[in-house]
Amino acid sequence: MAAWGLENQIDDATAVITELVSNAVDHGRLSSIRVIVSRPAENWIRLGVVDRSKAIPTMRIDANGEQIRGRGLVIVDSLTERWGTDLYRWGKQVWGEMRVEDTV
């Protein structure tokens, strides 16, 4: 993010990656994951985590607010413009895309 001059978005990007990594560690089938940070267009940043599980994540909402775990995708949803899952033959990538804010 700093290489692209997007220091003002590092905290949100870190939170998104942290939640995606946490989900991959909790639900993935192998001990290794891959973190991907890319810039598919000038005004977008894509943050993704690849793991070997083919289980598609779902966003859970705790109605009474007492659940400590299981809110990762709610956080991802609130910090990104869009998020989703790309399935591969051997696993998946869960990603979130953030709109690049003007730094001027």
Question: Would you kindly provide a written description of the structure presented here, covering whatever features stand out?
Answer:
The chain is of the alpha+beta class and 104 residues long. It has a single domain, classed as 2-Layer Sandwich (Heat Shock Protein 90). 25% of the residues lie in helices and 31% in strands. The chain has two helices and four strands. A four-stranded antiparallel beta sheet has the order 1-2-4-3, covered by helices on one side. The protein is globular. The model has no long low-confidence stretch (mean pLDDT 88).
Question: Can you summarize this structure?
Answer:
It contains 2 helices and 4 strands, in the order H-E-E-H-E-E.
Strand content: 25-35%
Structural category: alpha+beta
CATH superfamily: Histidine kinase-like ATPase, C-terminal domain
Q: Give average pLDDT, whole number.
A: 88
Tell me about the largest β-sheet: 4 strands, antiparallel
Q: Do you know the CATH architecture? A: 2-Layer Sandwich
Q: Helix and strand string, N-terminal first?
A: HEEHEE
The helix content is 25-40%
Report the total helices: 2
Fold blueprint:
Blueprint: H1 10-27, E1 34-41, E2 44-51, H2 72-79, E3 82-88, E4 91-99
Antiparallel strand pairs: 1-2, 2-4, 3-4
Record keyword descriptors for this entry.
104 residues, four-stranded antiparallel beta sheet, 4 strands, Heat Shock Protein 90, single chain, alpha+beta, 25% helix, globular
